[in-house]
Every structure is written in C-alpha cells, then in structure tokens.
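Good morning,

Both structures are done.
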Amino acid sequence: MPRRARLEAPGTLHHVILRGIEKRRIVNDVADRKNFVKRLGELSADTDTNIYAWAPMTNHAHILLRSSEIGLSGFMRRFLTGYAISWKIGVKS
C-alpha cells in the first residue's frame, strides 16, 4: 500500500526520521553530534523553521520541526547536503 502524499503547507508540524543507507552510521562521535546540532540550529535560524526536538543517534536521527516557507523538502535538502559533505570531510581526515 503506497504512502499518502506529505502535507507541504508552511507551518505544518513534522516528525522526521532520517537513517543512514544500509543502516550505516550517520554520527561517529561527540564532534559529529555537535556538528549535526550546530548545522540544524544555523539552518533553522536562516529559514525560520522551528525545531522543537532532535535526537541524533548512531545510525539514525529524529527531528520534530514546524516547516516554514522553504518547506520540509527544501529544509531537509539543504540540511542533509551540508551535513553529508561535512561528515565525509571529517571521516577522511
């Protein structure tokens, strides 16, 4: 049974669950967790997105947010692209 379409209206409350591909790690240590939270906070301030709760865990994360004009997909695209790039750089060094 297919999933129903996501409601994309600004101001909608969303519980977002993100997971590493094949359940791989998305954070390795405390520095990664701090980077995750820092980037989440900076982007939420830039986009007027309200973040109510977050929980970055080893191979997945939960975020409770209220979307803004940029929408959920725009916010998550910007957040995850930036985080993935910074995470890859951290893993290589």
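Second structure follows.
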Amino acid sequence: MAKTPAFVCTACGAAHSKWIGRCEACGAWNTIVEEVPLSAGPKALGGKGKGIVLTDLATQEAAPPRASSGIGELDRVLGGGLVPASAILVGGDPGIGKSTLLLQATAAFARKGLSCMYISGEEATAQVQMRAQRLGLSDAKVALGAETNLRDILTTLDTHRPGLVVIDSIQTMWLDTVDSAPGSVSQVRAASHELVTFAKRRGVSVILVG
C-alpha cells in the first residue's frame, strides 16, 4: 500500500499535512517540500532480531587508540585525539570557515601519518587544491574527491579504506533510495545513517560538515 505523502520543512524538519508557503513551526518561507515515505520492504515485517553483546559497567577494557593531529586545541576538543570508527558532526553558519578549518585538520592528521580523504560536494577538487595552496597545505598527503552520490563515495571508501574521511557537506549528499531532493530532511537523515554505519563497520573515522 502506498504511503501518504508528507510535506516537510527543510529548515526545521517540521511535518505538515499539506503544502504551505510558510512553515508554521519556524516561519521560514518556501522551505516546504513533499516527501513520499519509502516502503519498509519485506524485511520490516516484525521478525525476531538477534541478541547483542553486553558488557558489565565495571569491566575494564583497553582504551581505543587515538590519532593525534599535533594541534593542541583540536586534539583537546576531540578528547585527546581522533578515535577510530567515530562519527563527528561539525556545524555552523554558512561562511563561518568550516571547510577551511577541516581542510587544515585533515592535513594535520595526514602529516602525522593517518590515511585521509576529503570529499567535497560543494566545490571542485581544483578549488580545494587552491585553498590548500593558499594555506600552505599542499604537501599533505590528502586524497581529494568531488562527488555527491553517496553510493559511489561508499564504494570508494570501501576500496581505499582511509583512516579519516571528511564529508563536506552532508546536505549535498544524496541516495537514490530516498525519494526527495538533496538537502531534504530525509536525504540528510539517510545519508548520515549510512555514513555512521559505515564508520562503525569499517573502523573509519568520519567527520560530517553540517
């Protein structure tokens, strides 16, 4: 059975029963888009799941290794360094300098020997290279990519297995299984889920620019 379309505000995520010009929740204009929920498919029939591994609170496990950037303030914010299989969201207003900051951070980790990849969905690789040259980062061994198709990105990550990947930005990523435009609440939610799941499964640290 087809599911009823929903209208969602791309600014705040509020759901509406019909299209309106102004979001009643946040007041933004022309941010309401139609999103048709996908069918859950045959796997979502209420089948029994498998048990998960539980650990006692008092059990002392070895602390995960942390990768240091060599930048004191950055390592401090990360709790002492970058933890494998971690997913980090860096948010901020447009133009505040998120891309520049994370390019510097990625170069710092690369100079410390960590295999790093920087995927830009907003700029061409030539633009990122020019910024790196201006910042004196051109010598850092960072693999650059310009892509928004998340399936292609995940295939590339699975092939190269970097220690760190920066996705700039999560709003530009899209999945062909989600019936809405890039930047919509559904696309951002689905893309984030895919990347976090990949990070946990492959032990890759993922930084998402939001």
